[in-house]
Amino acid sequence: MGGATVLAERIAERRAGLGDPRELVGELRRALVLVPMDSGGLWTAEFGGVRWICAFTDEAALARFARARDAAGGDTGREAGGAWEFAELRGARLLDEIVPALGVPAGVAVDIADPEGSMAFPPVRGIVPDDVAIDAPADGPADGGDVR
């Protein structure tokens, strides 16, 4: 599936303290990931003041998430054990288009039902566009250069 297997491998490397974080972000941008749908929109969760788009590297990872949600009481309006609709999206589209469109600090959380294989891509410079990054300066040059 469009590089998602490679993304899962890069996540495992980073969790082991190996690899380059920039390469990991690049791999997310290239990968096709699965995002559950909820009431016609993408399924998101809020944690720590950030809206997280939950994405999965393959159908097995999404199924583990669905089982965990069902076991925890499921989602209102969804029948427990029922099929989950999902969209297949390129990571770059999530980061460059969908995150800014949410209008709140937002990032992407990958494979959240896999404690040993999950990874969060927070709303910071280098991951999301600078104009929606929470660590971007309020005004002035992004490179910290001299303003005259």
Structure notes:
The protein has 148 residues and is of the alpha+beta class. 32% of the residues lie in helices and 22% in strands. The chain is built from four helices and seven strands; from the N terminus they run H-H-E-E-E-E-H-E-H-E-E. It has a four-stranded mixed beta sheet, covered by helices on one side. It has a three-stranded antiparallel beta sheet with strand order 2-1-5. The longest helix is centred in the middle third of the chain and has 13 residues, at 59-71.
Unreliable stretches: 144-148
Would you tell me the structural class of the helices and strands? alpha+beta
Using DSSP, what is the number of strands? Answer: 7
Major sheet, described briefly? 4 strands, mixed
Task: Categorize the overall geometry.
Answer: globular
Residues in helices, as a percent range: 25-40%
What is the end-to-end distance?
A: 49 Å
Query: What share of the residues does DSSP label as strand, in percent?
Result: 15-25%
Order of helices and strands: HHEEEEHEHEE
**pLDDT averaged over residues:** 87
Number of helices: 4
Rg (CA only) = 16 Å
How is the largest sheet built, in terms of strand order? Answer: 3-4-6-7
List the helices and strands and how they pair.
Blueprint: H1 4-15, H2 21-30, E1 32-38, E2 41-42, E3 44-47, E4 50-55, H3 59-71, E5 86-90, H4 91-102, E6 106-110, E7 119-121
Parallel strand pairs: 4-6
Antiparallel strand pairs: 1-2, 1-5, 3-4, 6-7
Helix pairs in contact: 1-2, 2-4
